[in-house]
Design brief:
Structural class: alpha+beta
Number of strands: 7
Strand content: 25-35%
Distance between the termini: 27 Å
Length: 175
């Protein structure tokens, strides 16, 4: 969106071309993935594309509720950070697969993202921590996702078993 906004202000011909490409790509992907939430769909499209380029199987099941009271920023933070971590781990794993499962019951939205990893995780005080060298610039994704979950009286649960990393986030979808 930032790129489109910047292009719109500078060069309408380039803007029209880029917007057309984005629209075409979204239309093509929409046939493959739709969870009935435009914000989440856009993030899933991006990571589907990244996964496809990296030979990672990317499956999505379920959908979001028709009325979603989770703010756009928080949806972006949750999905972008969790999927970014899943793609990075899958790229290093022998089994390249990511599963996203979305469901809801009454006022609860349940987001589950599962991926394979190479069996090596760094932990500190029971929390998974980044393996990247610059800790000031990296390692904030899980905390951001957890913060977004807490904002909606939710919980985030991490399960690690047989080289499968699974994150489940439960959010309260009430105002």
């Amino acid at each position: 969106m930032c790129i489109l906004e910047e292009m719109r202000d500078k060069n309408s011909e380039e803007y029209d071309k880029y917007l057309g490409e984005v629209t075409e790509r979204v239309g093509r992907l929409r046939k493959k993935i739709s969870v009935y939430n435009d914000v989440v769909d856009a993030i899933l499209y991006k990571f589907y594309d990244i996964a496809e380029k990296n030979n990672i199987k990317f499956t999505v099941t379920g959908h979001m509720p028709q009325t979603c009271n989770i703010e756009t920023y928080d949806l972006c933070s949750l999905f972008y950070n969790l999927l970014s971590n899943a793609v990075e781990a899958s790229q290093k794993s022998d089994k390249k697969e990511i599963e996203v499962d979305l469901s809801y019951v009454d006022e609860d939205i349940i987001i589950k993202i599962k991926n394979y990893y190479n069996g090596k995780l760094k932990t500190k005080d029971g929390e998974v921590i980044t393996e990247k060298s610059d800790k000031n610039l990296h390692g904030w994704g899980m905390q951001n996702a957890k913060d977004s979950g807490n904002k909606y009286n939710g919980v985030m649960d991490i399960e690690i078993d047989n080289n499968i990393f699974s994150v489940t986030v439960l959010l309260k979808n009430n105002i």
